Recover the amino acids of this structure.
Protein backbone atom coordinates (compact mmCIF):
# COMPACT_ATOMS: atom_id res chain seq x y z
CA UNK A 1 0.00 0.00 0.00
CA UNK A 2 1.43 3.33 -1.02
CA UNK A 3 1.87 6.20 1.40
CA UNK A 4 -0.78 8.87 1.67
CA UNK A 5 -0.29 11.80 -0.65
CA UNK A 6 -2.54 14.18 1.24
CA UNK A 7 -0.41 14.22 4.39
CA UNK A 8 2.11 16.81 5.46
CA UNK A 9 5.69 15.57 5.10
CA UNK A 10 9.08 17.02 5.85
CA UNK A 11 10.87 17.63 2.59
CA UNK A 12 14.42 16.52 3.35
CA UNK A 13 15.54 16.70 -0.27
CA UNK A 14 15.06 20.46 -0.47
CA UNK A 15 15.68 21.18 3.20
CA UNK A 16 17.69 24.12 4.46
CA UNK A 17 17.57 22.99 8.07
CA UNK A 18 15.06 20.31 9.04
CA UNK A 19 12.73 20.42 6.06
CA UNK A 20 9.70 22.00 7.71
CA UNK A 21 9.54 25.04 5.43
CA UNK A 22 10.27 23.11 2.26
CA UNK A 23 7.67 20.55 3.36
CA UNK A 24 5.13 23.34 3.82
CA UNK A 25 6.02 24.70 0.40
CA UNK A 26 5.60 21.25 -1.12
CA UNK A 27 2.28 20.79 0.68
CA UNK A 28 0.74 24.10 -0.35
CA UNK A 29 2.48 24.80 -3.64
CA UNK A 30 3.76 28.17 -2.41
CA UNK A 31 7.33 28.91 -3.43
CA UNK A 32 9.72 27.74 -0.72
CA UNK A 33 11.52 31.09 -0.60
CA UNK A 34 8.31 32.89 0.36
CA UNK A 35 7.56 30.33 3.08
CA UNK A 36 11.00 30.83 4.59
CA UNK A 37 10.80 34.62 4.35
CA UNK A 38 7.35 34.54 5.99
CA UNK A 39 8.60 32.36 8.84
CA UNK A 40 11.63 34.57 9.45
CA UNK A 41 9.54 37.76 9.30
CA UNK A 42 7.00 36.22 11.71
CA UNK A 43 9.80 35.29 14.08
CA UNK A 44 11.25 38.80 14.02
CA UNK A 45 7.85 40.51 14.31
CA UNK A 46 7.12 39.17 17.75
CA UNK A 47 6.34 35.50 17.25
CA UNK A 48 9.78 34.72 18.61
CA UNK A 49 9.40 31.65 20.79
CA UNK A 50 6.22 30.38 19.16
CA UNK A 51 7.39 30.00 15.59
CA UNK A 52 10.46 28.12 16.81
CA UNK A 53 8.30 25.89 19.01
CA UNK A 54 5.94 25.26 16.10
CA UNK A 55 8.93 24.50 13.88
CA UNK A 56 10.33 21.91 16.27
CA UNK A 57 6.93 20.36 16.97
CA UNK A 58 6.35 20.05 13.21
CA UNK A 59 9.83 18.59 12.71
CA UNK A 60 9.20 16.13 15.53
CA UNK A 61 5.68 15.07 14.54
CA UNK A 62 5.88 14.88 10.77
CA UNK A 63 7.67 12.14 8.91
CA UNK A 64 10.09 12.76 6.09
CA UNK A 65 8.54 12.36 2.68
CA UNK A 66 9.07 8.85 1.35
CA UNK A 67 11.20 8.61 -1.75
CA UNK A 68 9.32 8.04 -4.96
CA UNK A 69 6.01 9.30 -3.58
CA UNK A 70 5.30 10.93 -6.93
CA UNK A 71 6.05 9.43 -10.31
CA UNK A 72 6.85 12.71 -12.00
CA UNK A 73 6.54 16.46 -11.69
CA UNK A 74 3.04 16.42 -13.17
CA UNK A 75 1.95 13.91 -10.54
CA UNK A 76 3.38 16.04 -7.74
CA UNK A 77 1.53 19.05 -9.10
CA UNK A 78 -1.71 17.11 -9.34
CA UNK A 79 -1.55 16.05 -5.70
CA UNK A 80 -0.69 19.57 -4.66
CA UNK A 81 -3.95 20.62 -6.30
CA UNK A 82 -5.79 17.80 -4.54
CA UNK A 83 -4.53 18.97 -1.17
CA UNK A 84 -5.67 22.53 -1.70
CA UNK A 85 -8.94 21.77 -3.49
CA UNK A 86 -10.00 18.14 -4.02
CA UNK A 87 -13.23 19.13 -5.78
CA UNK A 88 -11.42 21.07 -8.45
CA UNK A 89 -9.02 18.17 -9.02
CA UNK A 90 -11.95 15.79 -9.43
CA UNK A 91 -13.46 18.18 -11.97
CA UNK A 92 -10.14 18.34 -13.82
CA UNK A 93 -9.97 14.55 -14.04
CA UNK A 94 -13.55 14.49 -15.33
CA UNK A 95 -12.62 17.13 -17.91
CA UNK A 96 -9.69 14.96 -19.02
CA UNK A 97 -12.01 12.00 -19.52
CA UNK A 98 -14.44 14.16 -21.48
CA UNK A 99 -11.62 15.38 -23.67
CA UNK A 100 -10.54 11.80 -24.35
CA UNK A 101 -14.15 10.91 -25.15
CA UNK A 102 -14.47 13.82 -27.57
CA UNK A 103 -11.29 12.94 -29.41
CA UNK A 104 -12.22 9.27 -29.61
CA UNK A 105 -15.57 10.21 -31.08
CA UNK A 106 -13.72 12.34 -33.62
CA UNK A 107 -11.76 9.29 -34.68
CA UNK A 108 -14.92 7.22 -34.80
CA UNK A 109 -16.66 9.83 -36.89
CA UNK A 110 -13.71 10.04 -39.24
CA UNK A 111 -13.70 6.30 -39.81
CA UNK A 112 -17.45 5.88 -40.11
CA UNK A 113 -18.34 8.82 -42.36
CA UNK A 114 -15.83 10.22 -44.80
CA UNK A 115 -13.12 7.67 -45.15
CA UNK A 116 -12.52 7.43 -48.84
CA UNK A 117 -9.27 5.57 -48.48
CA UNK A 118 -10.83 2.80 -46.42
CA UNK A 119 -13.60 2.33 -48.99
CA UNK A 120 -10.97 2.27 -51.76
CA UNK A 121 -9.06 -0.44 -49.92
CA UNK A 122 -12.25 -2.42 -49.43
CA UNK A 123 -13.02 -2.03 -53.13
CA UNK A 124 -9.54 -3.22 -53.96
CA UNK A 125 -10.10 -6.34 -51.90
CA UNK A 126 -13.20 -7.30 -53.84
CA UNK B 1 -26.68 31.17 45.80
CA UNK B 2 -26.77 33.01 42.46
CA UNK B 3 -23.48 34.72 43.27
CA UNK B 4 -21.78 31.34 43.11
CA UNK B 5 -23.77 29.70 40.31
CA UNK B 6 -23.51 32.46 37.71
CA UNK B 7 -19.68 32.70 37.68
CA UNK B 8 -19.38 28.92 37.56
CA UNK B 9 -21.76 28.77 34.61
CA UNK B 10 -19.98 31.60 32.81
CA UNK B 11 -16.55 30.06 33.38
CA UNK B 12 -17.88 26.69 32.22
CA UNK B 13 -19.35 28.23 29.09
CA UNK B 14 -16.17 30.10 28.23
CA UNK B 15 -13.64 27.38 28.99
CA UNK B 16 -15.60 24.29 28.02
CA UNK B 17 -18.44 25.31 25.72
CA UNK B 18 -16.55 27.69 23.47
CA UNK B 19 -13.55 25.42 22.73
CA UNK B 20 -15.94 22.54 22.29
CA UNK B 21 -17.98 24.41 19.68
CA UNK B 22 -14.85 25.59 17.89
CA UNK B 23 -13.25 22.14 17.88
CA UNK B 24 -16.48 20.56 16.77
CA UNK B 25 -16.73 22.85 13.78
CA UNK B 26 -13.02 22.49 13.03
CA UNK B 27 -13.23 18.70 12.90
CA UNK B 28 -16.37 18.88 10.79
CA UNK B 29 -14.72 21.29 8.42
CA UNK B 30 -11.62 19.08 8.21
CA UNK B 31 -13.71 15.99 7.51
CA UNK B 32 -15.66 17.81 4.80
CA UNK B 33 -12.64 19.25 3.00
CA UNK B 34 -10.18 16.37 3.24
CA UNK B 35 -10.23 13.10 1.35
CA UNK B 36 -10.59 9.69 2.92
CA UNK B 37 -8.07 6.98 2.14
CA UNK B 38 -10.45 5.30 -0.32
CA UNK B 39 -11.21 8.59 -2.06
CA UNK B 40 -7.53 9.25 -2.44
CA UNK B 41 -6.85 5.86 -3.97
CA UNK B 42 -9.82 6.18 -6.31
CA UNK B 43 -8.71 9.61 -7.46
CA UNK B 44 -5.19 8.28 -7.95
CA UNK B 45 -6.52 5.43 -10.08
CA UNK B 46 -8.72 7.72 -12.14
CA UNK B 47 -5.93 10.18 -12.73
CA UNK B 48 -3.58 7.39 -13.74
CA UNK B 49 -6.15 5.87 -16.08
CA UNK B 50 -6.84 9.23 -17.69
CA UNK B 51 -3.16 9.81 -18.27
CA UNK B 52 -2.59 6.40 -19.81
CA UNK B 53 -5.70 6.69 -22.00
CA UNK B 54 -4.51 10.05 -23.19
CA UNK B 55 -1.08 8.65 -24.05
CA UNK B 56 -2.63 5.83 -26.04
CA UNK B 57 -5.00 8.24 -27.75
CA UNK B 58 -2.11 10.46 -28.78
CA UNK B 59 -0.34 7.45 -30.26
CA UNK B 60 -3.45 6.41 -32.15
CA UNK B 61 -4.03 9.94 -33.41
CA UNK B 62 -0.46 10.05 -34.68
CA UNK B 63 -0.85 6.73 -36.49
CA UNK B 64 -4.10 7.82 -38.10
CA UNK B 65 -2.65 11.19 -39.05
CA UNK B 66 0.32 9.45 -40.65
CA UNK B 67 -1.96 7.15 -42.64
CA UNK B 68 -4.52 9.79 -43.56
CA UNK B 69 -3.11 13.25 -44.22
CA UNK B 70 -6.59 14.80 -44.17
CA UNK B 71 -7.17 13.72 -40.58
CA UNK B 72 -6.17 16.44 -38.17
CA UNK B 73 -6.62 15.60 -34.50
CA UNK B 74 -7.84 18.46 -32.37
CA UNK B 75 -5.40 19.38 -29.69
CA UNK B 76 -6.51 18.25 -26.29
CA UNK B 77 -5.37 19.05 -22.80
CA UNK B 78 -2.00 17.45 -23.40
CA UNK B 79 0.80 19.92 -23.49
CA UNK B 80 3.43 19.38 -26.17
CA UNK B 81 6.21 19.57 -23.57
CA UNK B 82 4.92 16.48 -21.76
CA UNK B 83 7.30 14.21 -23.61
CA UNK B 84 10.32 16.18 -22.53
CA UNK B 85 9.41 15.75 -18.86
CA UNK B 86 12.52 14.25 -17.26
CA UNK B 87 10.44 12.78 -14.42
CA UNK B 88 8.15 10.93 -16.76
CA UNK B 89 7.52 7.33 -15.79
CA UNK B 90 8.17 4.77 -18.50
CA UNK B 91 5.31 2.36 -18.92
Amino acid sequence: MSASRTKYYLDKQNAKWMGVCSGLADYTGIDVTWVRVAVIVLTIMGGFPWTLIAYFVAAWLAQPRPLGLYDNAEDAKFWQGVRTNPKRSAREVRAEFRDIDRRLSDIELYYTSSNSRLSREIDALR
Amino acid sequence: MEDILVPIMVVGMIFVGLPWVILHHLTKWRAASSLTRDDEMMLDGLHDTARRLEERLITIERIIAADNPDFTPRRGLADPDAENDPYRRSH
Summary: Chain B touches chain A at residues 33-35, 37, 39-40, 43-44, 46-47, 50-51, 53-54, 57, 60-61, 64, 67-68, 71, 73-74, 76-77, 82, 85, 87-89 (CB under 8 Å).
